[in-house]
Each structure stands twice: as structure tokens, then as C-alpha cells.
Specification:
globular; about 300 residues; alpha/beta
Amino acid sequence: MEKFELHILGCGSALPTARHFSTSQVLNVRDKLFMIDCGEGAQLQFRKSRLKFSRLNHIFISHLHGDHCFGLLGLISTLNLLGRTAELHIHSPQGLEELLRPMLDFFNRQMTYRVAFHPFETREATLVYEDRSLTVTTIPLRHRLPTCGFLFAEKPRPNHILREMTDFYQVPVYELNRIKNGADFVTPDGEVIPNERLTHPADPPRRYAYCSDTLPLASVAEQVKGVDLLFHEATFADEDAPRAKETFHTTATQAASLARDADVKRLLIGHFSARYEDENMLLKQACKVFPATLLAKEGLSLSI
């Protein structure tokens, strides 16, 4: 199967600790790298993960709290020092360019590449990126300022040709694309060869959903139904549920309940409050509701 890998660069929340970096992830889709949020230290963790800066062209920012975007200026500056020439595209809620542009103009007066900002609407699901193999759609969330998660979805791929069968039936080369896309083959004698005799199905398309800071929302469960992997913030333990509600965050049990309701295959929890010395208590609370739960940690790499 083609690469579809998630790398955790940071899984802490707003208050820095010695245990965690601020929130940041990288999704590797067929060696194209997509960064999701960019907290402080993201570029250092990027290097530790042995990822290549040259393969990073798109960054998706969930919201404009510092622990999700303070790493951008340093990363942009480093890419400039490296002599980057390819455009860097940053997708975010409205306002990021107005915040960053004065600092970029001051610290990077001679840019070797262009930074393109793409603001998006946060109140409804919106397609914000598409290429030949992937779409990225926003997931509206509810936090203290406009916030969205992201749904990364592979496009369905054509069937795989069974070469021995196409050779046996002497299928012309110009027919192969039609057959890959589901067509039957008609021989010169008029015999119809069913497609399933000439191909085998491609692997099912994979989906990854990222939900950053938010109150738990039933609408999210609908949008991420059945995804292969769901990352959902689990900032607080059950006993701190009142604090979670006050700060528009989610508890581990609430994240697990959403994963269960959405019938996802696996849940990854993160964005941990600095108040907890051991996040395994959050994992235990989540696993009681949704056993297929994993704990995020720096350096973790998951194949989806």
C-alpha cells in the first residue's frame, strides 16, 4: 500500500512542560507531507522525525491560539535560510496573514520563496485542498474562537489489472484504462469478458480525521463516521469535566464516546493538560468506553 502515515511532533496543550511539545503533526501521503498545526518546537521535532522539509508544501492551522501556530514564524524563517524556492501554502481561519505578515516583513526581508495564505470559513465543512489522490475538508468545531479540524481522505483508486488475464484475452493497451475503471471487455468475436475476471479491487481508500480544541459535538461524529484513525483532543480527565466545559475542551471519556458513536477504527488522544504527570490515566478512562484508543506521544508514527 502507498504511504499514509501520521507523525506526532507535539501533543501538549497551552502551558509548556518538560514532557511535551505544543500541538503539531505531519501526515505523509505518498511522500507528500502535510503539517497539521505548528506549535513551538515543531521544526525541531520535524528534524527529529527525519522528515524532509522539501516535501512539505501545505500547512493546516486549526485555530489561532499560540500553542497551535507559534512555531510558524521559525519554520518559515528556517525554510528561507535553506534557500527554498517552492511556494508554501498555509490554510487557516481568517486573520493569520494579518498576524504573520509584519513579522515576516521584518525578519525575512529577502524571501527566497512565496508564502501563500488561504483563509477558510469555519462554520461549515469546506473543501480546502485537493490533488489527484487526496482531499482535505474542514470539520467545524466549537472553541473559544473560530476553529476547525480536518478530514484527510484518499480518493478511490482504479482496479488493478490482472496482467495474465489481459494477456490471455489479448486486450489491447488502449482498453486498459477503461478496464481499470470498471468496464468489461468485448472481444472481436463479441464475447463479453466481465471486469472482475480481468482485475482485482484496489485497496479501500483511507481517511484520517483531526479534531483539535473543541467541546464534544455530535456533528463531528457524523462527519468522521468510520474513519480509519481519529485524533481527538482529550485535554482533561473526567474529574475535571467542569474545567473542560468552561474552557471549551473535551475530556478523555467524551472523546472516546464520540469515537464509539462515530464507529471509527482507532482513536488517538492528545493535547494533554500540563496538570497531569501521567497521561495513562486519560488512556484508561478512554479505553473503558472505546478500547481501540491510543495515547499520543512525541515521536510516535502510525501507519493508517
